[in-house]
Specification:
binds 1,3,4-trihydroxy-5-OXO-cyclohexanecarboxylic acid; 5 strands; 149 residues; Rossmann fold; 6 helices; five-stranded parallel beta sheet; alpha/beta
């Protein structure tokens, strides 16, 4: 069974009630279900992990690097200075996509750079929870399982 790692960082466990005017009303469970639906077309499954602490995210990446076919990662504010997260991802060889619900470039200056983006296969920004579906489709595409127009 092929498994996609869905990794969400700090403050994303409370999606749905966290600043819904910015992040929308979908919960993390809604997002998990959406990603699962997308990848199910190839019989893939989703392993969803959310941690508020960077060390736990690093552990999740190392713990699942050999057993997952790709990853969707929203690092939350760790995009700004999550250097150990960045270094863990440097040794994660399957394709992975960075997702941000909000359009970080339309927000405060400190959100305008991501230390992990240079390592990502691609980045989806500003499309809300739908961005996770697009990231899932991108992983299928990158693995040769799906043609995206
Ligand atoms: C976020 C954007 C980050 O700047 C912020 O710290 C988050 C959420 C997003 O999904 O839009 O926690 O990653």
């Amino acid at each position: 069974m092929s498994v996609v790692l869905l990794l969400n960082g700090p403050n994303l466990g409370v999606l749905g009630r966290r600043e819904p005017e910015i992040y929308g009303t979908d919960t993390l469970a809604d997002i998990e279900a959406a990603v699962a639906e997308e990848v199910s077309v190839q019989g893939w499954e989703v392993l969803s992990i959310q941690h508020d602490g960077e060390g736990d995210l690093v552990g999740a990446i190392h713990g699942h690097c050999d057993t997952t076919v790709g990853a969707i990662i929203n690092p939350g504010a760790l995009m700004i200075a999550g250097w150990s997260l960045r270094d863990a991802l440097a040794s994660y060889s399957p394709p992975w996509v960075e997702v941000h619900l909000s359009n970080v470039w339309a927000r405060e200056q400190f959100r305008h750079e991501s230390v992990i983006a240079p390592l990502a296969s691609g980045v989806v920004v500003g499309l809300g929870a739908f961005g996770y579906r697009l990231a899932a489709q991108a992983l299928l595409h990158l693995s040769g399982q799906r043609r995206v127009a």
